[in-house]
Each structure stands twice: as C-alpha cells, then as structure tokens.
C-alpha cells in the first residue's frame, strides 16, 4: 500500500443529521424512509468526485455512551432521541458508504471525533495532508498547518484563522476555552457565568486553563473570581470531556482508506434498491465514463442541427439528466474576447451531439437580399433555420450555471470568454457563467505532460483512432478562407458537433486514467480550479499607459540611431545592422577579428549573441555596441511598439492569454502579448514596467516569493544546513559561502557571497564547471573545486541529484513535491551532451515545477480569501514567482496582508515560505 498523501476524514454523523433536516420526507415502495439516505448519498457522491484525496473514510458514532460518561455520567444526557423516521436509515447510510467502496469506521466506547483525531494524527505523522469534512466546532481543536476542515454544506474552508474567529484563540487553545465556557448541547458543565468571549480573553491573558485556575485569586471581578475558584475542578473535568483522544486503538488501519473504484454491481444494486433513479443514472454514466474501453470503442455518430426552442429544451433536459455535457463554441474570429458567437455545440453521450447555429450568414457577395446597407459582413443575409441568439442563450444560461451538471470543454478558457462576451452583448442578464467545469486539454497535460501535444485533433487520433474534420475542409485556406459564419448549416453541424462529441469522449477516457495513474490530486487541486482563475485574470487585463510606451519607443529609436552612427564610424562604412551576413563580413572579413565560424550550409559568418559577447569580452568595441543596439531593437519591437498595439481600445488594458499546457514543469506561459519575458535586470526593461499602471483610485500590488526554488531544494533534498538557515531567517548565500569557503559567517565579504549565490542558483539548474567558470570569470579548475566543496558542504544535494537522475532514467519523468509529472526526454541518450542536458533538466524540474505548483495554489486560494475579507482586490498577472494584483487605494494595506498570508500558507514545506509585497502606482514602483 502506498503511503497516504491526502486523507479525507468525513464526520458521518454530522452528514446524517444535516441531510435529514435538509430534505422533505421520502419513502421506498416498502415504506422505509430514505430522505437522509438520499441526501447523505448525494453528498458522498459529490465529495468523492470533487476531492483530490487518495485516502477517504467516513467515521460514525457507534452509540450514545462513550468513555466520557465514565468521567461525567450526565455527559450528553439531555440529548433527545433520534427522530423516529431517521433510526431505520442509519444502517442504510452505512450500507451506502460500503456500496461506494469507501472505508466506514465506528467503535464502541469512543465518539467519531476521537477516531477522527486519531486518524488525523496518524496521517500527519506519515507526512500526509488531512481534510476533515465537518462543521463540528469540537473538531476545530485539530486544525493545524497540516489539518484543515471543510464545511460541505456552506462550501467553506475552516483554517486556523476561522478557528480564531469562532473561539477567539488559536486551535491549540480551543479546549481551554471550551472547558471554561462549557457546552449546553453536550451537557459539558464548564464554569457558570463564563461564555466563549470571556473564556478567550482569560486564556489569552493567562496562557492556559491550569495557569488560570492556579491564579484565579488574581481576577479583579469578584463574581468571576469566585466562580473560577469554586468550579475549578468542574472546569478540569470539562477539559477532559472536550479533549479529543488521538491515541485510540482504531479497528481499521489508515492504509485501508485508500480510494478504490466502487464495484459496479454493488453500487448500482444499492441505488436501484433505494429507487434513487436520478442518482442511478448519474453513477451509471460516471462508471461508463471511467471505462477506457468504452471511450475507445467505435461510435456511430448522430449529430443534429437545433432549429427550434423545443428541440433545444430537449437537449438541455438530456444534458441535465446525464450530469456531464461537453460544450464548444464556434466564432467568427480567433480573438476570444472580440469574437462574435456563431453557434454552440453540446454532446451528452459518445456519438450524441448537436449544433445550435445562431449567426450564420450567406457568403459575402452572394446574398439573396441584404438586410441593411453596410459592409459586406454586416449586410450579409442571415441564413434560415437558426434560433434567435438572445432566446437561445436565455435557455442555455441555467444549464451552464447548474452546479449539478459538469460542463467539459477543450481549451475551455476560450469558450468562457466567448460566452461571457455573448451574454453581455446579446442579453440583458450580463455575462454567461459556466460552472462547474473541466478541460480535456488540461486533463491531457496533467496526465502526459509534454510527451505529446494537446490539441484536439492530435488527441483524437492518439486516443480514439479518429481523424477529425479539418477546419480547412469547411472554411478553406489562405486568401480563399471564409469565416465560420459563412459555412452552410449542414457542414457547420458536422464540424462543430464533432468537436463536442470528441471532447466528451476524450473526457471519459482521460478522466478514467486520473485515479489509476495517481494524478487526481494534481488535476483537482491545482490545474482544474486554476482554469476559472486564469479566465478572470485574462478578462481583467492590466492598464497600460500608451503615452509612456510612445515616449520609450521614441527614446529607444533615438538611442538606436546614435548607436548605428557610432557603429558605422567604427566599421569605417555604413551597413545594415539587422543583417547577420553584412555584420559578419564587417567583423571577420574587413576587421579581421579572430574566432569567427562560417555556417556549413550558407557560408555566412555566425554573429549570434554568444559570438558577439565573446568578442566584446575580449575588448572589441563594435560587437559590444551591436549587442546594445540589438537589445534596444528588441525592446522597441517586442515590447514598446507591440504593447501599444495590443491595448484594447474598449478597456485601455492589455489582456494576455495564459497557457497551462506548454511547459515541461507546469509553469504558465503568456502570449498575445507575452508579459512574462519583460526583462527586469536591465534599466531599460524596468522602464517598460513603468507603463503598466493602476486604474484611477487604485494601486498595483506585486507579491513575490523569496528564494522559493532554493527553499524547495532544501525541502526535497532534505538539506539540513539550508533548512536551518531558512528557519533562522539568515542570509542563505552568506551561510553557503561560509560553508564552502571555510569561513565564519562574519568573515564572508561581498565577493565570496556573490560566488556562493552563483553556485546556489547554478546548482538548481545543474551548472557545470565550465558554466560556473564563465559566469564568475574564473578558470575551470577553480570552478570545479567550488562545486566539489559545495557538495562536500551539502552532501544531501548531491544525493538528491543522483537519486533524481536514476528515477528519471527508470520512469522517463520526475515528480514535483505535489505529484506533477515532468517528462525527461533524452535522459537515456547515448550522446553525452544531449544526455547531460536531459539530466540537468530532470534535476531542476521538481524544483521549478514545485515552485510553479505553489504559486498556482496561492492563485487558487487568493480570490476566496480576498472575498472572505470583504476586499475588491483582484489578480491581474502571474510572472513565474510573482503575482500582480490591483487594489482600491483604501484597501491596499488589508489586501497586502491577506495576499502575503495566503501566499505563505499555500504549501507546507520543511522551510518557511516568505512572500515579499510591494505597492505602487506602476508595476515598476510596486516590484
């Protein structure tokens, strides 16, 4: 059995009563009441589907008496008996748990809370994360950095901050407060006259219950002082009653909680016996969806064009019954935010899909009679057989927002933008929202990383042996290409409905692999919830001052012209600086510089950055000035000119697109425009960030993880020296220099620290002696000695590197601390250069990928944390280890604290996470 990584402990008794009171009476044909069974089973299904845990158990109370009644006979004595129609449902609920192949635990003499406390302790000691599914205040004493709680009914997480809000003290002091305040529900006596708030103040002042009772005579209020003295023993008894036992000899080992797929006949038989027809249909569909064989089986497609509202209503009802529907949009252009919605396709089962055309028109120039005068596109005749867009979207809106129906898309962020825009433009009810959702492109990436591409066409051939209809087949190519809005309805239906059908079939296939390949947690806790977060960030965009960019472009152009003149003077003639061929002739043919190499294919001299940097290092002025000219040219063309062109005239903001499925380590990438590669180490690059500004009345907040990759290295390699240095908040580079160079920390000067810093960061990327020598300007022998000394000082790092390379050679991938697979192609190459590159990538991937996973966790948690504190601050950008947010001026301080706390609590490592937060009117001043 694999060790647990994330354990869900469900408070079964709490679920039962909440389910019973939430639903009206229900009975089977034989008269047995089933409302609590139905509600409990529905919640269990939801939890199983949504959790990323690898170990799950439901914990029940065995009976009314426990060891606490031996301590205090009246404990829970006044509790009423369970409702008469609930009693026969208790055994059925336990049967439901077992039918779904979930561990079910109860034990005579102990309450469910004691078993939960025991399993939570065992799980955390095994290194696992624990989530307790309950709203029971008695369980809040267990909350820690590794144990959290979730209230499923309110969809609310309960962390240490929530416990403080409830009790006025942190979790480790909850039992002292409860002992003083007592509990009328459980008949815990406490101290008369003392409530939760008073108890919290007393414990905060005196530290703990025993100290308070010993010093009760110091209490100034006479009545309170007398109560504490008189009822001191009662308070001590109460503390025994409220303290959860975490040392119970539990009847089932934690390893038996490993998540397992339910047996088909057992679970369907149980649901059928209870006459839960809707749940039966959903679970049947889920089990079928989890079957790779079913997903790969040849399918006879039946696609329909929806031309009237009655037909649309039938498809919507079918989607609601299925519980999962694939959704795809067709548009008149590729830009998601500016595209017009042409149609929507739905798929409810393999081979069963429809297309809802909304805005198809006759091809430009071939109209049978224009509706109005104007440009060709605007004047084109609307084709018959289509629904009114506003009416169709009004019908689709409830389905898209239905929490009981999962909407699946392929690159669904695109569809979310299109639907939101269509809702704003075509209806009075604002943007169309889609939730809950999943994405087959993201699913594929989670499972296979960069082993292959994740486009629908490629995945369809790879997994389904199906060749999809090419876009060029329906719209043409090149100059003859038409808009999808001009495609006839029959061809549009075949193409669009197939997209939805393939999406659903891929979902069924890929979703079934998650659990088997132990990738559920990565998908459910990292990538899937991030889709919605990124969609909101893309829609928000970031304000850009076009005037600043214009000034920068002008400045860059003037400086480029000056450099060009100077370079021509150095060369003795004019030539085209942008021409590598002409530059090579000047440098090597005319000036006679040494070290040039000609291409075997073209015969031209090589003039890449590495060649010019080598020549510049040798003291040659012309190549150094060409490097300066190239840098300015790139800044001007790639950033100042391109960013100005990318400003949305409607919002005054730049809206980048974040890609989740490109990099090998899980990092996000940015495009159209790329905002992640703006240089920050040069003065010119920092000037570009001055153009990114806050809206009036707002400020930008930049939050950046400090040395996160070194912290992850310390964690994954268990480097005791680095762990201690981070724990003590000491200068990590000075500590490294002291260890490597045999100095005392106070003897480390700036030069030694700089060398240690180069080694620290270089080691993460598998730097060689050659690379370190070039970076520090020393000979290769000295660089090798530095690296050898480094590994002698930190032997755990060398062990980690060798273990990681061996793992990669065996598996073809490595994993981040959070379970993400990072592919390592070339790890077994015979060519030592190619193999060395792959080995360095394998060493770095868990570290860089771990950093990417941590900031994703922070991004997912931030929106809820900000809303919970009543803040309007919103996320705008993510650039590797940095988040950029925009906050109203009056909430900057509060938002900064929430952001810092959320980022620092995003993961539990063996070293502290530190987030540094800056504020400014521009990105440059905030960073």
From TrEMBL:
3'-5' exonuclease domain location: 303-515
Keywords for this protein: DNA damage, DNA repair, DNA replication, DNA-binding, DNA-directed DNA polymerase, Exonuclease, Hydrolase, Nuclease, Nucleotidyltransferase, Transferase
GO molecular function, one term: 3'-5' exonuclease activity
Enzymatic class: transferase
Catalytic reaction annotation: DNA(n) + a 2'-deoxyribonucleoside 5'-triphosphate = DNA(n+1) + diphosphate
Annotated 5'-3' exonuclease domain residues: 5-260
Entry's Gene Ontology BP terms: DNA-templated DNA replication; double-strand break repair
Record-listed E.C. numbers: 2.7.7.7
InterPro entries assigned: 3'-5'_exonuclease_dom, 5-3_exonucl_a-hlix_arch_N, 5-3_exonuclease, 5-3_exonuclease_C_sf, DNA-dir_DNA_pol_A_CS, DNA-dir_DNA_pol_A_palm_dom, DNA/RNA_pol_sf, DNA_polI_H3TH
Domain DNA-directed DNA polymerase family A palm: 685-891
PROSITE patterns: DNA_POLYMERASE_A
NCBIfam families named among the record's database cross-references: pola (TIGR00593), PRK05755.1 (NF004397)
Family: Belongs to the DNA polymerase type-A family.
Function recorded in the entry: In addition to polymerase activity, this DNA polymerase exhibits 3'-5' and 5'-3' exonuclease activity.
Self-association state and partner proteins as the record states: Single-chain monomer with multiple functions.
Protein name in the entry: DNA polymerase I
Gene, per the UniProt record: polA
